[in-house]
Write a structure and sequence with these properties.
The complex is a heterodimer of chains A (about 475) and B (about 280).
Chain A: E1 2-4, E2 14-16, H1 27-30, H2 43-50, H3 60-63, H4 71-79, H5 83-91, H6 97-103, H7 110-113, H8 125-139, E3 153-157, H9 161-172, E4 176-181, H10 189-192, H11 201-213, E5 217-220, H12 230-235, E6 241-244, E7 250-251, E8 264-266, H13 267-276, E9 294-298, H14 302-313, E10 318-323, H15 334-343, E11 346-349, E12 351-358, E13 364-377, E14 383-387, E15 393-396, E16 399-402, E17 406-407, H16 411-415, E18 440-442, H17 445-448, H18 453-473
Parallel strand pairs in A: 3-4, 3-6, 4-5, 6-18, 8-16, 9-10, 9-16, 10-11
Antiparallel strand pairs in A: 1-2, 7-17, 12-13, 13-14, 13-15
Helix pairs in contact in A: 2-8, 4-5, 5-8, 6-8, 9-18, 13-14, 14-15
Chain B: E1 2-11, E2 14-20, H1 22-27, E3 33-37, E4 45-53, E5 58-64, H2 68-74, E6 81-82, E7 84-89, E8 100-106, H3 110-122, E9 126-133, H4 142-148, E10 151-156, E11 163-164, H5 169-175, E12 180-184, H6 187-197, E13 204-207, E14 223-226, E15 229-232, H7 233-236, E16 239-241, H8 247-254, H9 258-271
Parallel strand pairs in B: 8-9, 8-12, 9-10, 10-11, 12-13
Antiparallel strand pairs in B: 1-2, 1-6, 2-5, 3-4, 3-7, 4-5, 13-16, 14-15
The chains are: A alpha/beta (about 475), B alpha/beta (about 280).
The complex binds flavin-adenine dinucleotide (2 copies), iron/sulfur cluster and FE2/S2 (inorganic) cluster.
């Protein structure tokens, strides 16, 4: 359907109400493989979608972007077929466009603000970003100009989106950067958490390679706090500044009886086995995973959706998400909820586990739940779930994945004297990411608690600016 | 990549590797462990640090060839490299002057126990050491540990050397007072020794070896119940109070992936691993 949109220009262009849909693998097929679900726009589709942009003189979309990509400008370049310039425009603000184009919650950020969204579907900014990033990656990255060496050395702890962003920005400014990553592969949640079918690991690797080509040194298998501590990095190892980007990697459990039974995984364990260790290819890869017939996932966020969809792909007969609030409160991205439902995942709302029952071998066989109803709103503004007395019921299950949240990694906080920390374990910083210690900055999930890829990158950008200023004054 | 400088067979299927890892060598302490990944497809295998030399920049570990990963590791030779090692991980042992300390080590854990005995002696303790194995052929380091200890005993499950089983410990404990007991070995053995020391009221420290993946507090697979509370073996341990550990729970959890591990090991034995190419 064609509708006229009253834009701020006089020409009143006709704009299609619907966005160009992104081609996807069929649900019946994709539920059996780990290949990417969304296939990406073709050139034609990208141009058609780009043409829906009104090139607003006061673009609202930009205000919704945490790193302020000049969205209309890159869309214009795309439209003119100047793909190289278009991706360069994005990269002025964002070093990980192929990642953001896939996993950013655009519907709540740039696309939420897009004026076309007032009359129809907003411009698919994320899909266009993805198109350009993929276009560039397939042709090989260009390494931008790097400032001449400043002689300053910065240690970045954690190779997640926050750490990678800081490293890239500081390297471009001529500083020597070393990233210390505890795991054996870089990427943080991008490699150990988000599954291959939403974000192929080779894309993360390509973007990390690009950052290494900027001159950043990467040391994996290096747990800061156990090997060197932050004071040691600063005093003995010759670093002039430190950035902490250690994320929120500590799994929460429910503390109900039976939680140590076999077959009960934290979402982190489950996802680390599947993604980082590639258990889906066991026994070709050595790390095993056991998945039963009746899988229950507890929680309702992106982590729960990713776990449920992975379990399905590993061969579960049925996967049920148990969430203690109702459908309206589900915190996961809408698109991913839809994808999950199309694949056959079912949801049980307003229920919470009270105990797990095991077989004689110590493997889980049943889960007892209690029904919930929604009371008045709590501190988070969502209606508080309240247990309904006497409403317990039992479900059969042989695999449970607990996806109820993750808290900050505590090792750095425990081993860095004088570092101010909140009661939730997050690190206290000022508006530039500076911590209570001289020369030490922090950003990402370790500061905010579980958030998003782009907000972690935004924090990284700010911190990079502040670290640069600090180093140049030092 | 971590280069293997020394490869020594201490007993059948028990191997010692010394690798070049200067940063780890500088920081390692008794009681800590490392995580070894043989190659890109490998799993993360936790192994206790058996020795370190900051000057040479080396660390050593001793492992038992039990399943696919340790068998594959065992094939590597001097001069070969290991894909990735992370460490040191876990809390170091508490080493100070306690008084009289009883050290009991079983199987492959005799190796890290040597380090422990050395450190405890250095801190001024009187150390009585017991090394044990299933059969006498699996014993190693006897002379070294004997030389480090004030008193030394050997025990085997089948009685082929020294005492048969660990029941003799009751007599040792009845004879003289101990201020601390340190146990490292198979879980069943640690459980036994903890039961033996309990009536004597001797604080007993065990090194738990739950299944681990990341080894740094991120996955929670290593959860163990200690004093009815959930603890993470990798970051809260690996050492815990032996009188408070739920050993039976730990034994069950250790068996969680047995069928998969057997399959992997069998494929490896039959034709050098899976050949599907990761599909
Ligand atoms: C399953 C899942 C799905 C998600 N889906 C989305 C999504 O679709 N869209 C979205 O925007 N966000 C999503 N998120 C959230 C997003 O991934 C995080 O907000 C983001 O990755 C945070 O980035 P970070 O750099 O702060 O930390 P992380 O990505 O957590 O990276 C931290 C890194 O630091 C390392 N580290 C920790 N401690 C140490 C130490 N002491 N020494 C050295 N290294 C250390 C860790 O190993 C890790 O690699 C998801 C999260 C999960 C778990
Ligand atoms: C903190 C810690 C320190 C350890 N130190 C040593 C050491 O110094 N030397 C040594 O030989 N082994 C040690 N282990 C045990 C070692 O990690 C396992 O034997 C190894 O992972 C087996 O791998 P695999 O693939 O060869 O065998 P798999 O095929 O994975 O397993 C074979 C057998 O080993 C058992 N097993 C598997 N994983 C573990 C585990 N994490 N802990 C205990 N048993 C396991 C299984 O139940 C099975 O019966 C330690 C374990 C931990 C957690
Ligand atoms: S993307 Fe939407 S808000 Fe942004 S310039 Fe285009 S039409 Fe305007
Ligand atoms: S091994 Fe993952 S938390 Fe301990």
């Amino acid at each position: 359907m064609e509708v006229a949109v009253v834009a701020e220009s006089k020409s009143k262009p006709k704009i299609k109400k619907e966005a160009v849909p992104i081609p996807k693998q069929k649900p019946e097929e994709r539920r059996h493989n780990f290949n990417e679900v969304a296939l990406g726009y073709t050139e034609e589709q990208a141009l058609e979608e780009a043409n829906r942009c009104l090139q607003c003189p006061k673009p609202q979309c930009v205000t919704g972007c945490p790193v302020e990509i000049e969205i209309p400008a890159f869309i214009k370049l795309l439209r003119e077929g100047k793909y190289e310039e278009a991706i360069a425009k994005i990269k002025e603000k964002n070093s990980l466009p192929a990642i953001c184009g896939r996993v950013c919650p655009q519907e709540e950020q740039c696309q939420l603000k897009c004026v076309v969204g007032k009359v129809g579907e907003p411009v698919s900014i994320g899909r266009l970003e993805r198109f350009l990033a993929d276009w560039e990656r397939e042709r090989g990255f260009k390494v931008p100009e790097i400032a001449k060496p400043t002689g300053k050395k910065v240690a970045v702890i954690g190779a997640g989106p926050a750490g990678l962003t800081v490293a890239a920005d500081l390297a471009k400014l001529g500083h020597k950067v070393v990233i210390f990553e505890a795991l054996h592969l870089p990427g943080g949640v991008l490699v150990y958490g988000i599954p291959e079918f939403r974000l192929p690991k080779k894309i993360v690797q390509a973007e990390v390679d690009y950052i290494q080509r900027l001159g950043v040194e990467l040391k994996c298998g290096f747990l800061v706090g156990r090997t060197y501590t932050i004071p040691e990095l600063l005093k003995e190892r010759g670093f002039d500044a430190v950035f902490i980007g250690t994320g929120a990697g500590l799994p929460a459990f429910m503390n109900v009886p039976g939680e140590d039974l076999g077959g009960i995984y934290s979402a982190n364990e489950f996802l680390i086995r599947v993604n980082l260790m590639k258990s889906y290819a066991f026994p070709c890869y050595d790390t095993p995973i056991r998945i039963g017939k009746h899988v229950v996932v507890i929680g309702g966020g992106n982590v729960a959706m990713d776990s449920a969809r992975s379990a399905l792909r590993l061969g579960a007969e049925e996967v049920c998400i148990v969430y203690r609030r109702s459908r309206e409160e589900l915190p996961a991205r809408k698109e991913e909820i839809e994808n999950a439902e199309q694949e056959g995942i079912v949801c049980k709302f307003l229920a919470a586990p009270t105990r797990f029952i095991g077989d004689e071998k110590g493997w889980v066989k049943q889960m007892e739940c209690i029904c919930m109803e929604l009371g008045p709103p709590d501190e988070s503004g969502r209606r508080r779930p309240v247990p309904v007395k006497g409403s317990e019921f039992v479900m059969d299950t042989d695999t449970v994945i607990v996806a109820i949240g993750r808290t900050p990694n505590p090792i750095i906080q425990r081993t860095t004297e004088g570092l101010a920390v909140t009661k939730w374990g997050t690190i206290v910083v000022d508006e530039n990411g500076k911590t209570s210690l001289e020369g030490v900055y922090a950003g990402g999930d370790i500061v905010t608690g579980e958030a998003t890829v782009i907000s972690a990158m935004g924090a990284g950008k700010k911190a990079a600016r502040a670290i640069h200023e600090y180093l140049m004054k030092k | 990549m971590y280069k293997i400088l020394k490869n020594e067979e201490l007993a059948p299927k028990i191997k010692l590797f010394e690798v070049y890892a200067p940063e780890m060598a500088e920081k390692a302490k008794p009681g800590q462990f490392i995580i070894v990944i043989v190659d890109e497809k490998g799993e993360r295998v936790p192994l206790t640090i058996a020795d370190y030399d900051a000057k040479k920049g080396t660390i050593s570990f001793v492992f038992n060839e039990v399943g696919k990963s340790t068998k594959q590791l065992g094939l590597l030779k001097k001069g070969d490299s290991i894909w990735n090692i992370t460490g040191p991980l876990g809390n170091p042992s508490e080493i100070k002057h306690f008084g009289r300390v009883l050290c009991v080590a079983g199987g492959v854990m005799i190796a890290p126990m040597r380090l422990q005995v050395k450190a405890l002696r250095y801190a001024g303790n009187v150390v009585v050491t017991v090394v044990g194995a299933r059969i006498k052929d699996l014993l190693f380091y006897e002379d070294e540990i004997k030389a480090l200890s004030n008193e030394f005993y050997v025990a085997t499950d089948d009685g082929s050397k020294g005492f048969k089983g660990l029941d003799f410990l009751k007599d040792v404990l009845a004879k003289e007072k101990f201020d601390r007991c340190v146990v490292m070995g198979p879980v069943v053995m640690m459980k036994n020794v903890s039961e033996i020391t309990k009536p004597f009221g001797i604080p007993t420290v065990v090194t738990l070896t739950p299944i681990m993946v990341d080894g740094m507090g991120m996955c929670g697979v290593c959860r163990v119940t200690v004093d009815r509370k959930m603890m993470f073996g990798c970051v809260d341990g690996p050492e815990f109070d032996g009188h408070k550990v739920d050993f039976d729970g730990l034994i069950k959890r250790q068996r969680m992936f047995l069928p998969e591990e057997r399959l992997s090991s069998l494929l490896w034995e039959l034709h050098g691993g899976c050949r599907c190419g990761g599909k």
